[in-house]
């Protein structure tokens, strides 16, 4: 049941990002070949201007091995993955870089440093993660949030997750994104807390908490993405059948959805941590280069929009 | 991102079911055309011998309208959907039927009657739901459980969900099914309770609680279904990369996974409630006829195995 179609970095997103100057980006613990190759690719596409943080000796020898002239870029020597994280977060805090790219480091380690109250890059907002998913041959993407950071968010956190993703969608050029509050049902039932949460988020949106978007739910995935399913189930609102954003009930649901799209449809998952001083491109060891490139493009578009 | 490939009832499953006598099945509130059409289809494929429960007048006139001679089948008159549920569950309790097929009735209403301690068809087991998913042109299916009944099961319930689906896999001819305990991570982390649950279920299995199966986890979806992802992530066990069963962390995660497979891959979802006196074919209004037919085939195979 696996797709064998090649992954594609969406050309529209790439072109959009390339309208802006390369994004100054700290590559956190760059000392592995896959990381260096990703950073090289993003640099060659004019998406980032890297500062390579990690074991300087290893970084320089990998650069030679992959035939990448890094003479004009800064290399910051770090003795461990934690030190690389601290130094990279410091560069973001002081305004020397405008994005972080996860290198050879555990996400938890990087996020722990980034989230430190005093030394980190928190804002007075809740950080959340969003994937911008595209499939080969189709430039129209769909967002999944939060499949990475917030494990079991409740109403208040879901409102903040929505706010973060709405900002991202605005950056992508969708002025009024359609956000589907996904649950296992269209009915309000206390036995399924995600359905109750969804209704409360919609209510908050109706009171003005989430401007610049259409929010509806609870709805199941089929109603969100298929106009036919919405019609059969008699769900008629501005979001049903044409959602731009799937706000999932919990992390595992989002994780499964995004992975299923990657493995069954060769979807490219561009992913960012949002709502912090700078976005963080979190990639997984199993991610294809196209997803890493798309994440850098997404970060560029996001930062350019925030700076306006 | 929707698939336009036609749905297929897997021919292997159909042939397997047709080795057995038609399954005596109560169709619960049959008084709608889509329900009658499904029952007719399953009858014509020798999968079921229906008892049609619901408004007898409506049932007879729909039969005429869809050109189905129901003269040799029993029609049980019922004045409401609740009465239809009560009567159908009664037929199962007394051994007159060996399966229930959901008709024009809410799943909650039907399940409420079925689950009644005294009047229902409970066993001393926890009921759970399993989908047997197949994609066009591929007879090899994969099970998703539980995407319908158990909203947020913890360890004890997950062991019972596993036991039920293992029995189903045995019925399908897989003597040692590979069950993946799905989480959002391969690591054990208290911040993601599903990962801790998964490890406990695996431990129980190692102590002999779940014979006739290979159980492993926690693992994310990609590790469960892709040998390449399992290799990249260094996960090496009997299940990784070749799972027969995806035991999902919670209902919404399973719901999203099965819907995504239906809408992006034209997967056929055959679904049954397991672990009760008789299986219940639960279908949704938006299900295609192929999924209804496959559910009847699955019920037939399941009941034949249990009777051995």
Question: How would you characterize the overall build of this protein?
Answer:
- 2 copies of one chain form a homodimer.
- Chain A has 11 helices and 11 strands.
- Chain A has helices at about 10-15, 35-45, 55-65, 80-95, 105-115, 155-170, 195-205, 220-225, 225-230, 250-265, 290-305, and strands at about 25-30, 50-55, 75, 100, 130-135, 140-145, 180, 215-220, 245, 270-275, 280.
- By secondary structure, the first copy, chain A, is of the alpha/beta class.
- In chain A, the strands form 2 sheets. Chain A has a 6-stranded mixed beta sheet with strand order 8-7-9-6-5-10, sandwiched between helices.
- In chain A, helix 7 links the parallel strand 7 and strand 8 (about 215-220).
- The interface between A and B is large, with 41 and 41 residues.
Secondary structure layout plus pairing:
Two copies of one chain form a homodimer.
Chain A: H1 11-17, E1 23-28, H2 33-44, E2 48-54, H3 56-65, E3 74-77, H4 81-93, E4 99-102, H5 107-115, E5 128-135, E6 138-145, H6 155-171, E7 178-182, H7 193-206, E8 214-219, H8 221-225, H9 227-232, E9 245-247, H10 251-265, E10 268-274, E11 280-281, H11 289-307
Parallel strand pairs in A: 1-2, 1-4, 2-3, 4-11, 6-9, 7-8, 7-9
Antiparallel strand pairs in A: 5-6, 5-10
Helix pairs in contact in A: 1-11, 2-11, 4-5, 6-7, 6-11
